[in-house]
Design brief:
Number of domains: 1
Radius of gyration: 34 Å
Number of strands: 9
CATH class: Alpha Beta
Number of helices: 9
Structural class: alpha/beta
Strand content: 5-15%
Distance between the termini: 91 Å
Strand order of the largest sheet: 2-1-5-6-7
Largest sheet: 5 strands, parallel
CATH architecture: 3-Layer(aba) Sandwich
Order of helices and strands: HEHHEHEEHEHEHEHEEH
CATH topology: Rossmann fold
């Protein structure tokens, strides 16, 4: 009993103290809304508040831009004044002036394109200074994929296109690679203005074009050159193209819809504001 009595007395005093504290606390907070400390929200981190969020850097917009596209007939057929692109740019940037230059020549492979890259340009109505003298704000390099070498050499195409892209970077701070529309699987090259190859030869040629368009994708990734990828967006049969985007008179070059689609893809990619 002597051992139990002190324990009972201690328990009594603890209970009494708790009762008195609780009763006193109720009287102090009566009629006042107090949130328990454990439920108070922490003070927001000041670095995360909208007022201190970094403002994105905006590239100053210019009153006019010079845009040049360099390539083979896929570029050449975009119009003497790149009319499809001009119309699309005007719709997107109605208050901006664009000086557009079509440096496309039909029938040339990438080796021929590389050879004339730094030369003055003359093709039908177009007479332009050498690209190093023009120094365009935006320079788009076509794939030259539609003109494989007489003996198809995918590796050679890749190597020379890489060299061409490297030269372009010395001329413009904004260089893009253009992968044009995908070639047809059925009817490639057929039409009143087409080359009208046999089906076997046409399919082989279209397959070589696809390999070289794939080169453009790989080069863009390897060399960190932005890509305007009309090729992927125009496919319906694996790697082959949608006839809607192909000129029915020759089965090779873009139709009007194909040219507008290409122009829209360019404008969407280069974003000037």
């Amino acid at each position: 009993m002597k051992n139990i009595l002190p324990l009972l007395l201690a328990a009594f005093f603890i209970f009494a103290a708790f009762f008195l504290y609780n009763n006193l606390n109720k009287k102090l907070v009566k009629g006042v809304l107090i949130t328990p400390i454990a439920q108070v929200s922490p003070t927001p981190n000041p670095t995360l508040t909208p007022a201190s969020t970094p403002i994105p850097y905006i590239i100053p917009k210019k009153a006019s831009y010079a845009i040049a596209i360099f390539g083979d007939s896929q570029v050449d057929t975009m119009g003497e004044k790149l009319e499809y692109l001009q119309e699309t740019l005007a719709g997107e940037y109605p208050k901006t002036q664009f000086n557009l230059y079509n440096y496309g020549i039909g029938g040339q492979n990438v080796e021929q394109g590389l050879a004339r890259f730094e030369s003055s340009f003359v093709n039908r109505e177009r007479q332009y200074p050498p690209l190093p003298a023009l120094l365009p704000d935006v320079l788009i390099i076509g794939s030259f994929a539609y003109n494989p070498f007489p003996t198809h050499d995918r590796n050679k195409h890749y190597t020379l296109l890489k060299e061409l892209a490297a030269k372009a970077k010395y001329i413009s701070s904004r260089v893009y690679l253009l992968a044009e529309i995908a070639p047809l699987k059925t009817g490639f090259g057929k039409g009143k203005n087409g080359v009208n190859m046999t089906e076997e030869v046409a399919l082989e040629h279209a397959s070589h074009i696809i390999e070289q368009l794939d080169n453009v994708i790989n080069l863009s990734n390897a060399e960190n050159v932005p890509l305007i990828n009309v090729y992927y967006e125009s496919r319906i049969e694996g790697s082959f193209g949608d006839p809607y985007f192909v000129n029915k008179d020759d089965g090779i070059h873009p139709s009007v819809a194909g040219h507008y689609f290409t122009a829209e893809s360019i404008v969407e990619k280069i974003r000037l504001d």
